[in-house]
Amino acid sequence: MNDYRILVVDDEEDLCEILKFNLEMEGYMVDTANSAEEALKLELPRYNLILLDVMMGEISGFKMASMMKKNKDTQNIPIIFITAKDTENDTLTGFNLGADDYISKPFSLREVIMRVKAVLRRTAGVQTQVPEQLIYKGLSVNIPKKKVSINNEEISLTKKEFEILLLLLQNQGRVFSREDILAKVWHDEVYVLDRTIDVNITRLRKKIGEYGACIVTRLGYGYCFECE
Question: Which ranges carry the Response regulatory domain (predicted)?
Answer without folding.
Answer: 5-120
